[in-house]
Specification:
By secondary structure, this protein is mostly beta strands. The protein has strands at residues 16-19, 26-28, 42-44, 51-53, 60-63.
Length: 72
Amino acid sequence: MVDLNAPRGPGHPASVVELGAGDLPAFCPNRRMTVWNQHPRVFLDVAHTGRALCPYCGTEYRLAPGTVVKGH
């Protein structure tokens, strides 16, 4: 499990990706990341806590305020 409150090291970007219901299931690397900078795809559980960190690159994924998650 990734500690969402842990400080990020120099190798981790401080990027945050906001997700809506249509963006689920959440995964990283996302479609906006450059191809040369990609790591193996990992699916992230944002439905229970509203946010998750990628264990590879440290990108934070958050549900947009008011997002209703159904069936995930």
